Amino acid sequence: NVVTAAANHARSGSPTRVLIVGHTDTSGSAQYNMGLSQRRARTVADALVAQGVSGGVIQLDARGETDLARPTADGVREPLNRRATIDINF
């Protein structure tokens, strides 16, 4: 539902940039989590494009296990940290 709402919002105007940032928790290795956060951001981008958002304005970033929503120790599974954020600039 969140991705659909973001796609609707982006299509309502002419966005200059849609920035998608993938995040993970600390339960895997730092290297694995960086790849996972990249895949997470790519999945959201693909869903936005499938819903009519221009791929030309989409930028991806990955933070891995840095920039946690809920700080935890290394190796802790925290669902709140497993996320992607979408910023739409008009």
Account of the 3D structure:
This protein has helices at 2-11, 30-50, and strands at 17-23, 58-64, 84-89. The protein contains 2 helices and 3 strands. Helix 2 links the parallel strand 1 and strand 2. Helix 1 crosses helix 2. It is of the alpha+beta class and 90 residues long. 34% of the residues lie in helices and 22% in strands. The model has no long low-confidence stretch (mean pLDDT 97).
How many individual helices?
2
Q: What is the element string, with H for helices and E for strands?
A: HEHEE
Low-confidence stretches: none
| Span between termini | 21 Å
Mean pLDDT, to the nearest integer, reads 97
**Adjacency order of strands in the biggest sheet:** 2-1-3
β-strand number: 3
Structural class label: alpha+beta
Could you describe the largest sheet, including whether it forms a barrel? Answer: 3 strands, mixed
- Computed over alpha carbons, the radius of gyration is 14 Å
Measured by DSSP, the beta-strand proportion falls in: 15-25%
* Overall shape: elongated
Work out the helicity level.
Answer: 25-40%
What does the secondary structure layout of this molecule look like, with pairings?
Layout: H1 2-11, E1 17-23, H2 30-50, E2 58-64, E3 84-89
Parallel strand pairs: 1-2
Antiparallel strand pairs: 1-3
Helix pairs in contact: 1-2
